[in-house]
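U., I forgot to send this yesterday:
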Amino acid sequence: MKLKQTKWIIGLTFIVIGVFITVMSTLPKATQYYVTVDELMRDKDKYTNEDLKVAGKVVSDSIVKNDQAMTWTFQVENNNSTVDVFYKGAMPDTFKETADVVVTGRFDGQKHVIASSVLAKCASRYEEKLQPSYDIRKN
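Result:
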């Protein structure tokens, strides 16, 4: 009976340690808050060579896509401040000009973010679609 209890205790200990390691390794990235473009540009030294999330709107006519290399360059703005973004990979379907984006990446200290991921929001997808109202009694 004691051998069976010892096996359960050892097994549960390994499970708890595994969960703890998983949580501790993913928690710092999950709790990373974002800065807006104007905050980033105002305090460049603080964010230089740091992994961060930058929020803003995609600047109109700034998107350049290279289909061969699957790379994207574009600008993100907020309060008249802009930052250039370089990203390699597939873009979300909601990515377009003037879309709200949150870019995760590394800031070079000048005006460039090398992005590892891009999250794009499109307000029109989430707005309620109004149905025309009509009076049933008139039909």
